[in-house]
Design goal:
The chain is built from twelve helices and no strands. With 230 residues, it is an all-alpha fold. Helix 7 packs antiparallel against helix 11 and helix 10 crosses helix 12. InterPro entries: DNA-bd_dom_put_sf, MerR-type_HTH_dom, MerR_fam.
């Protein structure tokens, strides 16, 4: 019995394009041709196509099928581990989506911030986006608590106009000092604790502050740093 490319593809539950691709990458031997140039596929070709489809249905990439055939148990174990990791990731994503839907939050809210994201200003959201790239998970949890429960001084800092005078700047820095000292004493150092390394973390935080805070807010931060150093 001999089949044409279309016929053998239909029997195997695949497509003519796929059969031709298997020829190109060496997964399927090219059959002999008839006198008029048409390929003639036999039972071995159909068996091979069915097996290729079986492995593909199991999630094995075509590029790895040869490895599976050489060392099937090892390849299957590796595939199983990969699938387990993917499933774990999908479960986490679904959990995050559930939180986002429950709080009607933006999809841009980093994990753990959906419940407070709607209360943040656009500047705070931009800062959070930058911080999430350099902060450790441990410090992000601390930061979540900080921005989730702002005190009066922190709210004033967020609303501080760019032309605030020196007296306002000095007073605000003084009132922010206790919370800053407490955060330093009780939580991890966001720079030293960064998985990206202290230098990269410090640079990203400095550039974000310079870009996103207005001149008066930067003066408050500079004064606050000076107070914390004394």
């Amino acid at each position: 019995m001999a089949w044409s490319t279309r016929q053998v593809a239909e029997l195997a539950g695949t497509t003519v394009k796929a059969v031709r691709h298997y020829h190109e990458i060496g997964l399927l031997d090219v059959p002999e041709r008839t006198a008029n140039g048409y390929k003639q596929y036999g039972v071995p070709h159909l068996v091979r196509l069915v097996r290729i489809r079986r492995l593909s249905d199991l999630g094995i990439p075509l590029s790895e099928i040869a490895a599976v055939e050489d060392e099937p148990e090892e390849a299957i174990r590796a595939l199983d581990a990969d699938l387990e990791a993917r499933i774990d990731r999908l479960v986490r994503v679904r959990e995050e989506l559930a939180v986002i839907l429950r709080h009607r939050a933006s999809v841009y809210a980093p994990p753990g911030f959906a419940s407070v994201y709607g209360d943040l200003s656009e500047r705070q959201r931009s800062l959070l986006a930058v911080y999430s790239t350099v902060f450790s998970e441990r410090y992000l949890a601390e930061f979540r608590e900080l921005i989730g429960t702002p005190d009066e001084a922190e709210r004033e800092f967020e609303a501080l106009p760019a032309d605030a005078d020196d007296a306002v700047v000095a007073d605000l820095a003084e009132r922010l000092l206790p919370a800053a000292l407490r955060a330093r004493a009780e939580g991890p150092d966001p720079v030293a604790d960064s998985p990206r390394g202290p230098r990269r973390a410090a640079q990203a935080m400095a550039e974000a502050a310079a870009e996103l805070y207005n001149p008066a807010q930067l003066r408050v931060l500079e004064r606050l740093v000076g107070l914390m150093a004394t």
